[in-house]
């Protein structure tokens, strides 16, 4: 019954911006830390960003810090990832995820309680 659905992926030129969204259903989103992972072609899935249950704390992987912004709107069951100054190396399928255990557990992808199916972001050079 739990479902996370990403949207907003697409093709963007390097230096441009894109926002991806995640709609959650079948769970009380206010109880979950939320976050984003990504998987580039031929690469393993990697952590991108996470946000605490109430949005008070965020954490970013070094490669995206300062360029990406994660946010959430619990009333709308939504989490967002605003991506600015995009680089070709940001090209990946971006996955929304949820964890009851908290933000720290985004270090451990296998601990996630829910995953979306991903949305493809392609950054051209």
Question: Which secondary structure elements does this structure contain, and how are they paired or packed?
Answer:
Blueprint: E1 3-7, E2 10-13, E3 18-25, E4 33-39, E5 46-51, E6 58-60, E7 68-73, E8 78-83, E9 92-99, E10 114-115, E11 119-124
Parallel strand pairs: 2-11
Antiparallel strand pairs: 1-3, 3-8, 4-5, 4-9, 5-6, 7-8, 9-10, 9-11
Any overview of this molecule?
The protein has strands at 3-7, 10-13, 18-25, 33-39, 46-51, 58-60, 68-73, 78-83, 92-99, 114-115, 119-124. With 125 residues, it is mainly β. The protein is globular. It starts with a strand and ends with a strand.
Q: What's the β-strand tally?
A: 11
Low-confidence segments, ≥5 residues, pLDDT <50?
Answer: none
Q: What characteristic shape results from the CA principal axes?
A: globular
> What's the rounded overall pLDDT mean?
95
What structural category arises from helix and sheet content?
Answer: mainly beta
Radius of gyration: 13 Å
| Order of secondary-structure elements | EEEEEEEEEEE
| SS strand fraction | over 45%
Helix content, binned percent: under 10%
Largest sheet geometry: 7 strands, mixed
Report, as a whole number of angstroms, the end-to-end distance.
40 Å
Tally the helices.
0
């Amino acid at each position: 019954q739990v479902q996370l659905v990403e949207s907003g992926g697409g093709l963007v030129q390097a230096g441009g911006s894109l926002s991806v969204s995640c709609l959650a259903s079948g769970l009380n989103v206010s109880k979950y830390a939320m976050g984003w992972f990504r998987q580039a072609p031929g690469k393993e899935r990697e952590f991108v960003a996470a946000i605490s249950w109430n949005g008070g704390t965020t954490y970013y992987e070094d490669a995206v810090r300062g360029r990406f912004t994660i946010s959430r709107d619990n009333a709308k069951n939504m989490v967002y990832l605003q991506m600015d100054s995009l680089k070709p190396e940001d090209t990946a399928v971006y996955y929304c995820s949820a964890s009851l255990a908290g933000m720290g557990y985004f270090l451990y992808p296998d601990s996630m309680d829910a995953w979306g199916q991903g949305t493809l972001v392609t950054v051209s050079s």
